[in-house]
Amino acid sequence: LAERLQGFGTTVFAEMSALAVATGSINLGQGFPDTPGPPEVLDVARAAIGTMADQYPPGPGTPELRAAVAAHVERFRGLTYDPDTEVLVTAGATEALSAAMLALVEPGDEVVVFEPVYDSYAAAVAMAGGVLRPVPLTPPPADTEDAVWTFDPADLRAAVGRRAKLLLLNTPHNPTGKVFGRAELDLVAEVVLGAGLLLVADEVYEHLVFDGARHVSPATLPGLRDRTLVVGSGGKTFSTTGWKVGWTCGPAPLVAAVRTAKQFLTYVNAGPFQPAVAAGLALPDAYFTGIARDLQRRRDVLVAGLRAAGLPTISPEATYFATVDVRGVQPDGDGLAFCRALPERAGVVAVPAGVFWTAGHAHLGRHLVRFAFCKRDEVLDEAVGRLSRMS
Ligand code: PMP
Ligand code: GLN
């Protein structure tokens, strides 16, 4: 394994999903839904298979999907992009992020991220030869209503050094479920503009936001549109995480740069799924508000069940994930050891949140474990029942 990938090994999602299969446990680890996406979307994919949609689509993505991506971001965020020059279809958000790092980061350049950080970011930055500069997010006390993760503005400012090239921001945020508020994004904007950085905004959970929280697309802040790549995905929004249809929108020179990298990573992807996601993006507003309402209900089921089982839980404002403090049920407070033993103790699989902190900071999240609630009610009920009887 090349030096730049040392330490990345196997992702924790792969390890924990394999453990769930091997032990027959309920998998609340890797974030994927266990129900099909909307029929309007699935039917288009079925009809496309066996047609020319099975062959290479155009390099930047089909014109229909690029137009649908542009119309969707305009409808929900008020941002306008030219589908021909400012939209690129990618193999999931994952490829958009990796291709953006390869296209924009020089070896030794620094990339500012909020920590905990989604696992592919560190690898994507490392593959480009960049260096991560993490800004810590501090968890709120568990079991407290309306408590959210916060950061110190001084830490954000301090993370931006002379070699800083871009800020990679995920909102709504995995694994914390935090939605960055307007005042926080104003600070991000001040720092990005002040230091002349680029911004990459990963918004794959944009529609999975609960209660009164509101997702603000960072590119809508004054001055940011022209230096921001918005990254999205059909995986979460249409419950089709295996299709890997993602995209990025931004000013033409940035999108052209990402396209150059994407050409030699995968060239194109997901032929028959591109028209299907295009149909999904055109669904009425009620679809998008409906998925948030439905998921919020399931969040409530899982969070209430975890708390009733004696597990202190941070309830998220968005995403698929709730965070549990395991110190009361795992004497050494080690979330990884807890997750490795959980199939045996309860027949459930979760993900140790410590893996989302960078090497020197793993102690900050060592006692935290992430549980996914994007599952059917009966699965959640069975899982919390098992956890309440945990040995
Ligand atoms: N970003 C975040 C924050 C994610 O949680 C995920 C996947 N769950 C991705 C990117 C990757 O999305 P995709 O499956 O579209 O590659
Ligand atoms: N993003 C999903 C999660 O956080 C999983 C994606 C993956 O397996 N890489 O659980």
TrEMBL record:
<dbReference type="GO" id="GO:0016212">
    <property type="term" value="F:kynurenine-oxoglutarate transaminase activity"/>
</dbReference>
<dbReference type="GO" id="GO:0030170">
    <property type="term" value="F:pyridoxal phosphate binding"/>
</dbReference>
<dbReference type="InterPro" id="IPR051326">
    <property type="entry name" value="Kynurenine-oxoglutarate_AT"/>
</dbReference>
<dbReference type="InterPro" id="IPR015421">
    <property type="entry name" value="PyrdxlP-dep_Trfase_major"/>
</dbReference>
<dbReference type="InterPro" id="IPR004839">
    <property type="entry name" value="Aminotransferase_I/II_large"/>
</dbReference>
<dbReference type="GO" id="GO:0005737">
    <property type="term" value="C:cytoplasm"/>
</dbReference>
<dbReference type="InterPro" id="IPR015424">
    <property type="entry name" value="PyrdxlP-dep_Trfase"/>
</dbReference>
<comment type="similarity">
    <text>Belongs to the class-I pyridoxal-phosphate-dependent aminotransferase family.</text>
</comment>
<feature type="domain" description="Aminotransferase class I/classII large">
    <location>
        <begin position="26"/>
        <end position="387"/>
    </location>
</feature>
<keyword id="KW-0032">Aminotransferase</keyword>
<keyword id="KW-0808">Transferase</keyword>
<keyword id="KW-0663">Pyridoxal phosphate</keyword>
<protein>
    <submittedName>
        <fullName>Succinyldiaminopimelate aminotransferase apoenzyme</fullName>
    </submittedName>
</protein>
<dbReference type="InterPro" id="IPR015422">
    <property type="entry name" value="PyrdxlP-dep_Trfase_small"/>
</dbReference>
<dbReference type="Pfam" id="PF00155">
    <property type="entry name" value="Aminotran_1_2"/>
</dbReference>
